[in-house]
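Worked example 3 (structure in, sequence out).
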């Protein structure tokens, strides 16, 4: 009978871990949703305070930023595709980043 109880304890621990992970995931998702909702609502309220000229200026600034970003993306290459960076460094960067993250966990 003792081995059966030990197996039951293992399952209860596993269930407890799963419940805790699920609770954390639900909490994070709820916080993300509420934050997004509140920031969107604040942004819409702020937009309502602007007059037509300010809205047009804001749209022009956003368009200029978008065009600049498109221009930069067209002229630049990613780290992995860059010919100026040695192949060893290009391929080792993901390993270095994952190792750095692992050191902080």
């Amino acid at each position: 009978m003792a081995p059966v109880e030990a197996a039951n304890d293992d399952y209860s621990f596993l269930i407890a871990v799963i419940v805790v992970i699920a609770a954390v995931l639900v909490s994070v998702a709820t916080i993300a949703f509420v934050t997004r909702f509140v920031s969107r609502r604040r942004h819409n309220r702020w937009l309502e305070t602007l007059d037509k000229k300010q809205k047009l200026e804001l749209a022009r600034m956003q368009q200029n930023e978008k065009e600049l970003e498109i221009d930069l993306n067209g002229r630049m290459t990613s780290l992995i595709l860059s010919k100026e960076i040695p192949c060893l460094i290009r391929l080792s960067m993901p390993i270095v980043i994952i190792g750095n993250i692992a050191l902080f966990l």
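Notes: The two ends are 39 Å apart (CA to CA). DSSP finds three helices and no strands in the chain.
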